[in-house]
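Final report, closing paragraph on structural work. Over the funding period we assembled a curated collection of sequence-structure pairs, and we close with a single example.
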Amino acid sequence: MDTQNRYIVIGATRTGINLIKKLHALDFPALLIDSKKCPEREINNIYHQVDSLDDAVVLDGKCYFVTFDEDSANIKVCLALNKLHNDIAIYTTLAQESLGDKIALCLPNFHYINPAKKSALKFIKATLDDLDYKKVKKFKWARMIIKVDALIKKAILFICAIMSTSTLFFHFYDGLAWIDSFYFTVTMMATVGFGDYSLKDHSDVSKLVGSFIMLLSITGTAIIFALVSDSIIRKRKELSIGISRYKGHGHIIVVGGGSVGFNIVKQLTVMKEKTVVLDKTLDGKYSQQIVDLGVPHLVGNAEDEANLYRAGLGRCKAIICATHDDLVNLEVCLNAKIARPDLRVVVRMYDQNLATNLNESIAIHSLSMSFIAADEFIKILLAE
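Its predicted structure, as stored:
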């Protein structure tokens, strides 16, 4: 197989497939190579399957594009290519810019792009272009639901059940008035015992029931205190890097604190835009860097509408969904659109077809990372 005058794309990922299609459309002699079966029928004539990536490395090409999703795989293949073809340009994608810069210093023919950084500007452009926040219709607040930990709910119900049972028992069995039965139950469960009521002259059954109630109430109270303490500690841990609720307005909500979300936030900060980040993890790779930028950081699952309200959904001017999961992004942007039909929503999608359908069907601005990366490679190629 003669590949000497061809542009070789190694890696049948979404980026690789989009790139080979664009090269083919521009009449560039290109070939897509990977060790798996051809992923799409329409690229079958420009796809070559090899037994291993080592077989792809030894092919002589005019230029190489390495388009795997993981930095480690890209670097491994690029180094192997450079060993055999140190005078031919090698291009790849890397999320870790510092690592890419250091490799580029050592290998003159090595070039890389950071898809997250390149796409950040496109997300911001799609968010802010022709956006007039003042013309957005006034948001009608939905009924807010305060959520309580399920275990705390059960413990409280347990205490209430004991209190109700005790009140009923002392009213019907010992003949106390309703208010006296309730008062006696509370003083007994709280173990304060004011002396105005006691079980000293009551029957053995009443004394046994009273003792049982006191033991159960002490246990239940201890459980409630333990659960509340755990909840407070957990909240304090969340607040150590974030906030519980954002009270500003006219801001942009960025869902997802990964590499794409971080680069978007970084660019928005430079542009003096008010930004709030909503992410479900406390220990993300970029969480501390986001906090260092002075950007409010909320911890919570964005698929839960209550967390979107915490981030100021009713007062924001736009929302960008940039997690690594297409379905999560889709659900979040649909929730936002249902709550505020006029809100500008921009979403990250890996699947270009899904992105196109969202743009056309629901008026949600969708951008495909692989499509953007392929475009950047084409720009570099045309420029050179």
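The domain at 150-239 is CATH 1.10.287.70 (Helix Hairpins). The CA atoms of residues 97 and 350 lie 21 Å apart. We thank the funder for supporting this effort.
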